[in-house]
């Protein structure tokens, strides 16, 4: 479903992707982990075509993202739901209006149907009673859940979750992961979850990839990568800073 082939990207001499390769099968849930600032969000933006690699190719559903423009690029992006790391809610719209936004903008759906769909989604996310509130009136967790509801409302075939549980208490964090898993079972999307929420996230994904120094250094099922015993992965799991740093 998604193939990243030998992607390189630098920003003003800061080389972020250095020949990155990754393949994700249709319907698979994938966790992408790695230290802060290494390029995980940048990689997601390449997959959805917001950023283009300096060299290398990205294929989504057998289409080369780099060769798409205008309407074709728009159609490709419509396959995606994207939970931005920053949430990116519209401050001047209520929770209801934020979640309804993609349906109003991108479909011909009538208001009564939109209302039904949005309220079902808000109910799932425990936000029904907050539908009339503005983002400024919400807690961090509520904002994250609103963003998640908006990303999923179009029932996309590919979901990119950029740190869905960061900054949330453990209970809300777990409920968000459970919700993502539930939606995955229901909708069968291909999903990438960028997260520092390890090992918890491993219970809801089939595969894990770890990024380091512009490449994917580990890739496989949990059992496979534990068997490999990669020191950088062990260190990431334990958060240990004793002994040598196995990154960099
Ligand atoms: N639009 C941009 N212009 C210039 N540099 C950028 C841009 N976006 C990202 N970068 C740089 O790319 C590198 C990777 O950033 P990115 O946001 O992908 O990290 P990350 O792995 O998602 O980190 P975190 O876990 O903290 O979210 C950083 O050095 C960042 O400064
Ligand atoms: Mg990031």
What does this structure look like?
By secondary structure, the chain is of the alpha/beta class. It has a domain at 90-155. Helix content is 35%, strand content 24%. It contains 8 helices and 10 strands. It has helices spanning 40-47, 70-77, 95-106, 111-124, 140-152, 170-187, 222-228, 231-238; strands spanning 2-11, 14-24, 29-33, 55-60, 63-64, 80-83, 158-162, 190-194, 207-212, 215-220. It has a 6-stranded mixed beta sheet, with helices on both faces. Strands 2-1-4-5 form a 4-stranded antiparallel beta sheet, with helices on one face. A hairpin with a 2-residue loop joins strand 1 and strand 2. The radius of gyration is 18 Å and the shape is globular. The protein starts with a strand and ends in a 10-residue tail after the last helix. The model has no long low-confidence stretch (mean pLDDT 91). Residues 40-41, 85, 162 line the site of magnesium ion.
């Amino acid at each position: 479903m998604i193939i990243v082939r030998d992607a390189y990207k630098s920003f003003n001499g800061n080389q972020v992707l250095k020949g990155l390769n990754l393949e994700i099968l249709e319907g698979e849930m994938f966790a992408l982990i790695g230290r802060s600032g290494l390029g995980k969000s940048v990689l997601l933006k390449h997959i959805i075509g917001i950023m283009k690699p300096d060299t290398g190719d990205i294929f989504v559903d057998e289409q080369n993202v780099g060769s798409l423009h205008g309407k074709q690029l728009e159609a490709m992006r419509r396959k995606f739901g994207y939970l931005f790391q920053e949430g990116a809610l519209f401050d001047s719209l209520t929770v209801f209006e934020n979640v309804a936004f993609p349906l109003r903008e991108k479909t011909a759906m009538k208001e009564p149907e939109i209302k039904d769909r949005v309220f079902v989604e808000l109910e799932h996310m425990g936000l029904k009673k907050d539908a009339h509130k503005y983002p400024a009136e919400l807690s961090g967790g509520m904002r994250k859940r609103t963003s998640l509801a908006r990303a999923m409302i179009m029932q996309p075939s590919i979901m990119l979750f950029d740190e869905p549980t960061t900054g949330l208490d453990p209970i809300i964090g777990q409920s968000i992961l459970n919700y993502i898993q539930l939606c995955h079972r229901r909708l069968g999307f291909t999903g990438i979850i960028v997260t520092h929420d390890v090992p918890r996230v491993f219970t809801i994904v089939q595969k894990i990839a770890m990024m380091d120094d512009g490449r994917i250094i580990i890739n496989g099922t949990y059992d496979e990568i534990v068997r490999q015993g990669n020191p950088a992965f062990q260190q990431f799991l334990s958060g240990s800073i004793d002994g040598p740093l196995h990154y960099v």
